[in-house]
Amino acid sequence: MTTATIALNERRRRFAPALIVALVLGALLWSYWPTVVGLWSDWQEDPNYSVGQLVPLAAIYLLWHQRDRLRGVTVRPNWLGAVVVFIAQAARGFGLLLMYGSAERYSLVLTVVGLVLWLGGTGVFRRVFWILAFLFLMVPLPGRVHNAISGPLQTFATAGAVFLLEMVGIPAARDGHVIILSSSTPLAVAEACSGLRMLTAFVVVGSAMAFLVHRPVWQSVVLVASTVPVAIVCNLIRLVITAILFRLVDSATAERFFHDFAGWTMMPMAVGLLLLEVWVLKLLDAGMRPPIEATGQA
What we know:
Number of helices: 11
Radius of gyration: 25 Å
Oligomer: single chain
């Protein structure tokens, strides 16, 4: 066998897995096209979940970031993945039968999870498990879950803003989801001000950061979980500054701050807080490690 033939066979061997993956992804996209169109529509129309459109792009980047580790993994298909795909399609059928859109959307992600396990095997699956879990964040929350979270967030945002305003010496009272400034000026805290949009965005950013910083599992979990209080704190800061501008300047300036300037500044603030948390966790991890005793020869 000539050198040219060997090189050709090697190229074919490398090309075959890529071709299989491309065909599977093409078939998956064709099968789930209505679901993908519905997701895209929600991303564009509902600001609470607009960050979802960035999740697939971020997942592709995270895969590229893992490319060196994935090259050394042996691909051994695992038929357990076929079981996961079957469960995903059963969930899809449930969603189609009962017109439950969230079941179809989650089944899309679960199908991807099953296909990775089926075609790539446990070695590949372990390397990309966090990325696969990350994909679930692109799906908007089901209506009942959305309402169960949004309402309490809206109430807490209103009460928390009133408390902080009084702490800085600005008279404020709460009437439902309305902040009464100086006993006469109402400032409504609408559902869009609840902080859910900020919460979904920060969870996505925190999850990607937890993957990239390469910390122990417990620290990654703490980092992702902390995005919830970070989002709540940032939203409270935005509401308080808006209320102060509303009282001292005018409503137009306050609204511009809330929707424009604050929207750009809260994300860097959150990223800074999360990076500070990573630094603190590193210090804690270093502090919990036993000291290395010096050894010598007699």
